[in-house]
């Protein structure tokens, strides 16, 4: 609570700046450790929603340019809080698929910028979250085998400077679905196959399950959990357990 602001936002540290990354960090840690309460995230949903701009993506704070890292953080935080349906999902989908560049196959962080390997996760990682949200709304035209981006093109080159997020994005590109419905698309040799990563937390799904199992044995502060949180690591839709420093570029 020491970094929570009256408008629902969070600062990155005591005396630090406000942006949507800190809201995601707070929601991620609170959900995994089972300490989400209504008071902790009061007005946070509305603050994050105000970061979605006319482009369709989310900015770091309300009124600025949409950016891949901030868009992932804001969207993932709303998924954790069970409020992702309040976004303009179609506008967000249109924005993120427009960030994959046809020639390189990779993603840019924002309009009119160069492709950067770290956005293999920040941008491509949004697609499982959007797939999940649209699936819950009953979208009938969603694929049952592929995410909504060109998975093969994303695997054809890598930026080793951003190894973590390149590999995270590569994992998203290789794995579709969850425990009930799983498809893989591995480019090249079988040795290229990576372990799945959870599209909300970007850690292995089994580690998410272990953390939730451990901390759910402990009491929740104030005796209340905010409805819809934490994100269900065992949902039956294709993205819930996907086999699948923000960098300004």
Give the rounded overall mean pLDDT. 81
Could you give the count of β-strands? 2
What's the architecture, going by CATH? Alpha/alpha barrel
Q: How many helices does DSSP assign?
A: 9
**Overall shape:** globular
Whole-angstrom Rg: 17 Å
Order of helices and strands: HHHHHHHHEEH
Low-confidence segments: 231-249
CATH topology: the name is: Glycosyltransferase
End-to-end separation:
32 Å
**Beta-strand level of the residues, as a percent range?**
under 5%
Oligomer: single chain
Number of domains: 1
Major beta sheet, strand line-up: 1-2
CATH class: Mainly Alpha
Report the biggest beta sheet as strand number plus sense, adding barrel if it closes. Answer: 2 strands, antiparallel
SS-derived structural category: mainly alpha
Report the helical percentage: 25-40%
Cofactor: Zn(2+)
GO molecular function: metal ion binding; protein farnesyltransferase activity
Region (Disordered): 218-249
Keywords: Metal-binding, Prenyltransferase, Repeat, Transferase, Zinc
